[in-house]
Amino acid sequence: MGECILKVSGLCKTFGITKANDDVSLKLEPGKVHALAGENGSGKSTLISQIVGIQTPDSGEMELAGKPYTPVSPIDAREQGIGFVVQELGLIDDFDAAMNMFVGNVGPFTSRGMISIKKMREAARRELQRWNFKEVPMHTKAVNLSIEKRKIIEITKALSTNPKILILDETTQALSHDTKNRLYEIIEEMKKEGTAVLMVTHDLDEMCELADQITVLRDGKSIVTLEKPEISVDRVRQLMVGRAIEGNYYRTDWECIYDDEVLLRAEHISDGPFYQDVSFELHKGEILGFCGLSDAGIHEIGKAVFALQPPRQGKVIVNRSGRVLRQPLDATRNKIAYVPKDRDSEALLMEASIRDNIYMPSLQEIEGKGFFISPSKCTALAEEARQKLNIKCTNVKQIVSALSGGNKQKVNLGRWLVKDLDILVLDCPTRGVDVGVKAYIYQLMKEMKQKGLSMILISDELTEVLGMSDRIAVMKEGKLVTVMKRSEHPTESKVVEVMI
Q1: How far apart are the first and last CA of the chain?
Q2: pTM (2 decimals)?
């Protein structure tokens, strides 16, 4: 190991009977990318939360540039040269984008006790331009921004302080292909300037490509730190789970396997700036993939199919019933389900129990006489989902916010998979989950496909779309430009060429 900017020694953190971190040690070096690898629940985010001052260690110590480092808050950490984008904090929903970028640092815009919102917004726009990110409306409240735009604000905020250490906790999976590539360029620029980068990502290919060093965590312990020559996807994967993971994540066949029957049609649908004149068909037993850059409109297509954000022109039709989908209730009554990209704010009730989250979409099925909801039926349904998806929890009364990312996503999927479905819309279904859960979700998709379930797979990860889809719909600037068949063996470079 060379020069050290941050040294973590024997860090321990316990929550109840759970040892989230157990004697964790690592060193960050200037000009290098250091990644943390581990399954959900291995202690990565807990470690980061202590480095940035969200949590206080039970024991152990940290040194920053050779001096004792004990941050008392995230603001304290930022003032000591640590910029970060972490899962726990995010943005303040009721603040606009500019205020979120400079919250805790409004001094430059304050005169006689008054904050100049105009100057703050101008400064925020300059920061975006400085880092060559796409424009974000600075007057818009964070709650109304897309998950990608929220992350862009968080990243820009972290960069605006010219940090000595940049921490990125599961940041890239919220970004589109082009924005992700821009972040990669920024990381390279930061390395050249001597900044240390600490990152967490569940994309092992991305991790192994970017990282100069990887520390593997398992059950709260730091198992090993790999240097660049030792790093490979298979090695990291095996160390993470303590055993070799065999088999292919994705489908191994190269055929478009689905029935001739069309279950759903989109006819010339348009929604203002998001997408224009898009038409497609979804067959029984088909996985239809959608991919595109950040302004392509792929995520809005998912909302249109579920009628969460119905098209302004054109229509989405269920073939068997001839029903035009105008609201989510139309979709659920026609056996259509939707798993959104941002599960924490758009899908799950974070402070409710697993049980309550599971039964909510199935109220009609478990409703008794006089609109009475049977508690025993609710619990039975939740138990069915827990067992079916192997959700790791103390019991179904556990609060969802206490679960790991992978288990949250299992709840998100399980609440729909206990129902009788024909169509499932999956928007970035493996975002923020570890390698084991990702493999599990892909296997689940294969099984559902074999049973005749139709799926629309929307993803910012091209490998995911290529690996799982029968047909791939490529969108560019709101228009559907081409549909590629699995049997044509489309490559990532060919898809990117069309997207750009």
Answers
A1: 41
A2: 0.71
